[in-house]
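In line with agreed milestones, the collection of sequences with tokenised folds has grown. A representative record is reproduced below.
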Amino acid sequence: MISTCIVVLGTAQAVPPGYDAASFARTGIGVRALGMGGAFCAIAQGPTGAYWNPAGLAQLGDFQAEGMYTDWLGAGIDLQYLTLAGYPPIGEERPALSLEGRPVQFGLSWLSVHVRDIPWWEEEGGYGTFDTWSYLIIASLGWQLEQSPSVSIGLNVKLYHDRILEGRSFGLGYDVGLMWRQQLLGIPVSFAFVTTDLGGTEVQWYGTTGEPVNYVPWLARVGLAAELPVWEGIRLICAASYEWGVDRPRFERLRLGGELSLEWLALRAGYDWLLTDPAGKWTAGLGISPWPWLAIDYAFLPGKLGDTHLLALRVEF
């Protein structure tokens, strides 16, 4: 119950003034990415890659959908997401919107956190319970500016919404991402820069005392990834990213991750270190692709308040 209340305070953000709103959204979307410690902004593959860097959508060549549902921290906190990206095939064709002969890729993501039966007390009504919800909806697009080297740009438009008792909140934010991909000494590498909640996102509350405005911090993120040769049929991806608050301290974060892939199996590990914490946390995961159109991803995230197991299903059309 203590852990549940702590998370509620971090997700609902219904206390003024607030400069750390929507902290639930900074956990990240994508079981593959979280198994790699979140060091994903220079990889940004698949439909969940748009969360980490919308410019990664430019490399998507098909239509993909991914979904996940879990009990966060094992504390009765329902965490789920659903993402869609790309163009579905219509017959034998895959019609797409193009700009200068290169397709513009689109994505849509939904993240939800729901905490049930939180106890509370009123002098007149006595003891009771209430629920709280937090939502994030992301509309994304990515477009390739140049083909050799590959340079792409992306944009996220994000809607934040919270519900707690009679209170409701709404906020609109923007992310911009860049990605550069090339081969150096025969090794595929990529560099990325992302700025999230550009300028700081205001989340306005309604139906609460004072109807406060909370703020989602403006963050910047740089990343590097490389695909190293190991053996025929085996690939190793190493990635790193660093992020910081543009106009506020204490958001500095270092993420490291790796993925070793065989034909149908991927093993992942990562390290996520919020620099204000004396020690970071390691993560681990694996992926299974029994068919080219289907992938099952698992990630294990240890935590001080409890461990979390994530399981996601991804399909391609």
In short: The chain has a mean pLDDT of 89. The first strand starts at residue 64 and ends at 72.
